[in-house]
Amino acid sequence: MKIAIGADHAGYRLKDEIVPFLQSLGHEIEDLGCDCDQSVDYPDYAVPVAERVAQGKADRGILICGTGIGMSIAANKVPGIRCALVHDMFSAKATREHNDTNVLALGERVVGPGLAQEIVRIWTETPFSGGERHVGRLNKVMQLEAANVIHP
Ligand code: RB5
């Protein structure tokens, strides 16, 4: 599949380890940076990756910062994005099966490269379970996004 990937200064080293790994699994990678230690702002990398996915120009997105938290918050502001912050293999599988997540966030300061590779492998290989239960819940999430309302 085609995967857009982005990172900030605290995540680009892990990105540079994940990119060849994903390529070795046969994926086409669009690397949207960054590639240096100079401090940058994670939304500037989260949004372009999320937009590539939302526009259908990439099948999935992967975002890496120090914790993965800022990237996941920013990506989830883009309509159509379901981004999960994942640091274990169980959640990597579950978030594909239950949430049909289209963007994965990782924290370079949280996971080592070996675990990160296993997480991305599982997350890219696991299909959405589908079914009335999960589809119904995701429809409710999409309705929230469409309504853009905060209930009192
Ligand atoms: C950068 O220091 C750090 O705040 C950022 O990479 C990320 O962890 C934010 O959520």
UniProtKB/TrEMBL annotation:
Gene3D superfamilies: Sugar-phosphate isomerase, RpiB/LacA/LacB. The keyword Isomerase applies. This is Ribose 5-phosphate isomerase B. Belongs to the LacAB/RpiB family. Its EC number is 5.3.1.6. GO terms for molecular function: ribose-5-phosphate isomerase activity. Pfam families: LacAB_rpiB. It comes from Paenibacillus xanthanilyticus. Keywords: Isomerase. SUPFAM superfamilies: Ribose/Galactose isomerase RpiB/AlsB.
